[in-house]
UniProtKB/TrEMBL annotation:
Compositionally biased region (Low complexity): 269-309, 344-361
Annotated region described as Disordered, given as residue ranges: 269-361
Cofactor requirement: pyridoxal 5'-phosphate
Name the UniProt record assigns to this protein: Aminotransferase DegT
InterPro entries (UniProt xref): DegT/StrS_aminotransferase, PyrdxlP-dep_Trfase, PyrdxlP-dep_Trfase_major
GO biological process, any: polysaccharide biosynthetic process
Ranges of compositional bias, category Basic residues: 324-343
Amino acid sequence: MTSINEQPIPAARPVIGEDEIEAAVRVLRSGRVVQGPEVAAFEEGFSRLVDGRHCVAVNSGTSALQLLLLALGIGPGDEVIVPSFSFAASANAVRLVGADVVFADIEPGSFGLDPAAVEAAITPRTAAIMPVHLYGHPAAMDKIMPIAEKHKLAVVEDACQAHAAALNGTPVGAFGAGGTFSFYPTKNMHSLEGGMVSTGDAELARTLRLLRNQGMEQRYANEIVGANMRMTDVNAAVGRVQLAKVEGWTEQRRANAAYFDANITARASPCRRSPRAPGTSTTSTRCGSGATGTPRWPSSPRRASATRSTTRRRSTASSPTGSRTRRRAAPGTCRRPRRRPPRSSRCPCTPRSPRTTWSAS
């Protein structure tokens, strides 16, 4: 039997089967590899995942975010509210169009934007809110959308990790002015590389198509300033194969997660970090059993008392009159004892919980 240590389980691994390889080879043999019929078919197929919205394929998820912001007219002088916990591309896209990033806190359960933090971050310069549906979990769109409507703000969904996810029956990418998706190889579906923008506004979709293709709808008829952010037919062909499988994969992943919840967390619940206690070098942790772990240093009363006695000997001395006075430290030195870091921050209920790297305060 092969042990886990001999064959590690990757956190993310691209799925590339014979179907994907055959699709790519078919396009390569056709001689037409740039944006063409495969891209159009991929856009049409993906629209079914976002309630039939217009879909515009591009070369990456970051490009999708950047083009959507540009198409909405967001630029210098504007602010976009972005979650403080996300991949760098969310904030990078805002800066690439010249707007300012305003970070707002996240909810602990969904890792998405906290609606209360969003409302607190709104200023007269705010132009858009960018919820990120992280780890396939939709953000609180049922609370964020009313805030956006109240303040007349655009909502730009970053759904790059949430293909086929939905909230209350509405798929992600179908809530705001537009949604963006990534097809990087480690996403829950991919096209080797690529991205997609979804929108319910036909005119906005046309602007997106112009922006991705040097401002052209007809060849050499440049209507606006644009860039080359097109998807190739090779990428689209692979994406179409994956698109046919993504809903089945999603159901299987949900079943796998339910299995882990039932068979692993019931035996050894992972520790959840609680706020750091003042004056300590580690956090306390709360386990699934309800027990509370404490900092592991000093590890024994003997070590603690030895440290205290050593400190006293170093910090006091007898004066000529026989009284105990504090010894003055030599210039450039410090006699205050250094606190040792904990040997381990493991909770006793979770033998293999991650080691903390916080230093002593």
